[in-house]
Amino acid sequence: MPGGNPFGVHFVMMVEAIRTQGTDEQWERFGKRAENFEICGTYAQTELGHGSFLRGLETRADYDRATGEFVLNTPKLSAYKWWPGGLGHCSNYCLLVAQLYIDDEPKGLQMFFVQLRDEETHMPLPGIDIGEIGHKRGFYGVSNGFLGLKNVRIPRTNMLMRNAKVQPDGTFVKSPASVLTYFTMVMMRCVVTRDNATLLAMAATIATRYSAVRRQSPINPNEREPQIMDHVTQQLKLFPEIANAIAYQLSANKLWSLYHETYVDIERGDFTRLPELHNLSCVMKALCTADCNVGAERLRLACGGHGYLTSANMHLIVSSAAAACSYEGENTVLLLQVGRFLMKSWRAATEGKPLTPTASYLRGPARGETFGKWTGEWANIVAAIEYAAANKVRLAFESMSQRLAQGQTEAEAANGTGIELTQAAELHGRSFVAATFLAYVTGPTVSERSAALNRVLERLLELYLVHTALRHLSDILQVNC
Amino acid sequence: MPGGNPFGVHFVMMVEAIRTQGTDEQWERFGKRAENFEICGTYAQTELGHGSFLRGLETRADYDRATGEFVLNTPKLSAYKWWPGGLGHCSNYCLLVAQLYIDDEPKGLQMFFVQLRDEETHMPLPGIDIGEIGHKRGFYGVSNGFLGLKNVRIPRTNMLMRNAKVQPDGTFVKSPASVLTYFTMVMMRCVVTRDNATLLAMAATIATRYSAVRRQSPINPNEREPQIMDHVTQQLKLFPEIANAIAYQLSANKLWSLYHETYVDIERGDFTRLPELHNLSCVMKALCTADCNVGAERLRLACGGHGYLTSANMHLIVSSAAAACSYEGENTVLLLQVGRFLMKSWRAATEGKPLTPTASYLRGPARGETFGKWTGEWANIVAAIEYAAANKVRLAFESMSQRLAQGQTEAEAANGTGIELTQAAELHGRSFVAATFLAYVTGPTVSERSAALNRVLERLLELYLVHTALRHLSDILQVNC
C-alpha cells in the first residue's frame, strides 16, 4: 500500500517499543491497550529542527520530585515534534522522545508515554498543540503530524523503564547497555531494505505488464504496431530494473538472515558480529532506497504519460522510495558511517588483522595484490567490483591520513573526505549485493530449483553484473589499466 | 507555478494554433473570442491509445457533402482524447486533432474547432462525453481531461484551413508545406527546455537557501552545529546542480537565438538550418528535462524530510520536470531521432561533405584523428566530451552498417542500434551544452560583466566541465587510452 496508513507507526514502532523498552507493569497498564487498538498512538522523535542529529533534540522532560511527575515542554519552535505518522488526526497517545532533566541536569534521551487527546471526544488535552503538517509528495494516508507541549504533566511511571530508570527521589539509573535501542534501529533498516526491494519489484512488474499490453510506433512501416517491449530502448529501461529488484530481494533476505543470527548471538551475550550487521544494514538501506527511487522513476517513465497518473500506482511507489531515502537514517549520513567503518577495516587489513566476512575482499588489495585479467566471467566481474571498492576505500584512507597528518581533527578529516567515504561505502554495498546474487545462483540451492528457473536467474545475474560493471565502469577501468 | 494552471494550453497552444493555422475569417470568428477569454479551450491531440505515434490517432472526422459538415467520432475506447490540459473542467471549446476522411478515404490529421459545453450552463453538448482523468503525480491545477465524441457535427468552415483545405464539394487541397506545423513543435521544445532550465535553477535556489539556514550535526563535537552547507557531501549535492542550471540556462538561450534566426531564414524561404534546429531542440528538450528531473530530485533530497512537504515546493518542481520527460515528444523517442540525424552527419563527415555547425566536431574523428593529450584545461575537457560523443556516433554507425549488411531493414537496424543511438545523442547534446558554456564564459561578452561575476561564472564552468567529464568518464577513458 504505497499511500501508507496512519496506524503503521502505532503498530510497528510504538507497540514494539513499549514491549521491548517498557517494564512488565507498563506493558500491562498501556502496552496491551495499544496492542489491542483500544488506544492509538505514534512514536514522536523527529523535530522541526533536528532529525539526523538525535542529540540535538530539544523537547524537555523535567522531573518534579515534589509531585513525582515529569513536566513536558517544547521550549522553542524548532523543538516541535514534526512528522510522526498518524499524529495528525489519528493518535490519542504517543511515545515521546525527550531530553530528560533532573535538577536541570541533562540525562540523555528517554521515551515517555503521553496522552494527547481525550479518548472519547478526541479533543486535544490542555497544553497539547497538535495538528497535521500538510500536503506531501506521497504517503497521503499517513497523517503526519506536529506536536507542541506546554507544562504537560505525566506520572513518573510513564517513562519507559526497562533499561534506564528514574527513582521517586530523582535518582537516575543509567541503562546497562544501549545495544537494545540501537538494535531496534538496525531492525528498522532491515525492514526498510526489504520493503524497498519489494517496491522496486512492484514497479518493474507494472511497467513490464504495461510494455506487453501497450502497442506503439511500428518498427517497420506498414507492419502492425509492436508491443513496446519490442523496442530495444524499452528493454533497457525494464530488464536491468528487474535484475536490480531480484538482486535486492536476495541480498535483503541475506541481511535478514544475518540479523536473526546476530539476534541469537546477542541473546547469548556475543556481540562480535554486531558492527558488521550494523554497517551492512546502513549501506543496504541507503543503496536499496536510492536505487529503488531512481529505478522506480525510470520504470514510471517507461510507462509514458500513463505512468504519471495516480491510478497507475507508479508515482506512489516512487514517492514511497523517495521518502525512504530520508527517513530511518538519511542515506548520506548512513553512507558516511559505513565509510568510517571501512577506514577501520582498511587499517585492519593492512595490519593483517581479522576482517569481518563482508569486508574480507579488502585483504588482497591491502596487501598490494592487483586485480589481474578481465575475463568477463561472473566471479571475475564480482571481483572487479570488489577491487574497485577496495580502491575507493584506499583513496579515502589516504585522504584521511593526509588530512590527519596536516593536523586536522578526525572529524574535520572525515568531513573533508566525505565524498570519497560515501563512494567507498556505495561500492562496498554493491560488492555485497553482487557477491550475494552470485552465491545464490551458483550455490547449493541450485538443485532445489527447476532448470527453467535457474536459467532465468542466471540471465538476471549476468545482466545485473554487466549493468553494475557498466555503471561503475570508470572505477573499474581505473583498477584494470 | 509548478502546479500548472488549466488555461495554459488554451493560451499557449489553442490561440496560437488558430492564429497560425486558421484563416483570417476563422481568426475573426472564434480566434479573437478565444484570445479574449470569452471562450476557453484546449488542444486535444493525445489519445488513450496513441501519443508518440501521431499517425496512429483514431479520432475520425468524416466529411458529409450533403450538409457541408464534418461528423466527429471516437470509434473505440483507445481513441478517447486523454490528457488535454484544462479539458476536464475548464473548456467549452477545443481544437480537435482528428483523421480527416472524405468518402472513407484518409486525408491525414487535421485540426477542427469544436464546441464541447454550453457557454452559459457549461453542460456538455449532445454526443460529448467529457471529464477529468483523475489524480496525478503533479500539475494538480491543470484539470487534464478525456473526451469522446459520438456523431458530433460541425460546419465545414470549422476545420483550420490556412494550409490544407476541404472545399464544399469535398475536394481536398493538400497543405503546400508541412513545415509550419512542424515548426510549432520545434518552438514548443525550445519553450520546454527553457522552462526546465528555470525549474532546475528554482530547485537549486531553494535547496541552497535551506542549506544556509539549516544547521545540523556538529563537525567537531562540542562546537555549534554548522550550516549544513559546510558538510562536503552537501556541497556535492548542491554545487553541480547550480552549475547544471546555469549551463542549461545559457544553452537554452542559445537555442532560442537559433530558433529566431531560423524563423527569419524560413520567412525568406531558406530552410538550410531547419534540420539542425530541429535536432538541437529535440536533444536539448530531452537532456534538459531528464537532468532537471534527476537534479531537482537530488536537490529535494538535499532538503531532507522538509523537501518532502508540498510547502517546500520541491516535489512540485520535480513533478513538473518528470512530466516534461514524457510530453511534447517522449525523451527516448526524441533521442532516437537525433541519433538518426547523427548517422547522416557521420556519413557526411566520412565523405568530406559539409556538416552543420553543431556537428562539425565529428569531422576530425571521422578522418581518424585522435583526441591527443588530456590537459584538464577547459577547451581540452570540451574536446574530450566531443571525442567521446564522436566515438559513440561511430559505434552506432558501425552497428547500423553491420545490421544493414546482414539484410535488416533500415528500421530494424535502427531499433537494434537503439541504445547506441540514444547514447550518441546524449553525448552530442552534452557537447553542445559544454561548448556553449565555454564560449559564453570566454567569449566577447566577458567585457560586459563585472570581474566578480566573471570569476563566479568561471568556477561554475569548471565545475560543470569536471562534473560532466566524471559523469562520462568511462566514455572519455575509452577514447583517451
Short summary of the structure?
2 copies of one chain form a homodimer. The first copy, chain A, is α+β, with helices and mostly antiparallel strands and 481 residues long. Chain A contains 13 helices and 11 strands.
Model description:
Two copies of one chain form a homodimer. By secondary structure, the first copy, chain A, is α+β, with helices and mostly antiparallel strands. The first copy, chain A, has three domains: 8-173, Butyryl-CoA Dehydrogenase, subunit A, domain 2 (Beta Barrel), CATH 2.40.110.10; 186-258 and 290-329, Butyryl-CoA Dehydrogenase, subunit A, domain 3 (Up-down Bundle), CATH 1.20.140.10; 332-347 and 378-407 and 414-443 and 453-481, Butyryl-CoA Dehydrogenase, subunit A, domain 3 (Up-down Bundle). Chain A has 13 helices and eleven strands. Chain A has helices at 8-21, 24-35, 179-213, 232-267, 274-301, 314-324, 331-350, 363-366, 378-405, 410-416, 418-442, 451-471, 473-479, and strands at residues 43-44, 60-64, 69-73, 81-82, 93-102, 105-115, 128-132, 145-149, 152-155, 165-166, 172-173. In chain A, α5 crosses α7 and α7 crosses α11 (418-442). The longest helix of chain A is centred in the middle third of the chain and has 36 residues, at 232-267. The interface between A and B is large, with 66 and 66 residues.
Low-confidence stretches of chain A: none
The greatest inter-chain interface is formed by: A-B, 66 and 66 residues
For the largest beta-sheet of chain A, the strand count, sense and barrel status come to: 6 strands, mixed
Count of domains of chain A: 3
Range of strand content of chain A: 5-15%
Secondary-structure element pattern of chain A, one letter each: HHEEEEEEEEEEEHHHHHHHHHHH
Helix fraction bin of chain A: 40-55%
Give the overall average pLDDT of chain A.
95
Shape of chain A: globular
* Tally of DSSP β-strands of chain A: 11
Number of helices of chain A: 13
- Quaternary structure classification: homodimer
CATH topology descriptor of the largest domain in chain A: Butyryl-CoA Dehydrogenase, subunit A, domain 2
Radius of gyration over C-alpha positions of chain A, nearest whole angstrom? 25 Å
CATH domain class name of the largest domain in chain A: Mainly Beta
Architecture (CATH level 2) name of the largest domain in chain A: Beta Barrel
Name of the CATH superfamily of the largest domain in chain A: Butyryl-CoA Dehydrogenase, subunit A, domain 2
Secondary structural class of chain A = alpha+beta
Domain Acyl-CoA oxidase C-alpha1 (chains A, B): 182-343
Pfam families (chains A, B): ACOX, ACOX_C_alpha1, Acyl-CoA_ox_N
Organism (chains A, B): Ceratitis capitata
Protein name (chains A, B): (Mediterranean fruit fly) hypothetical protein
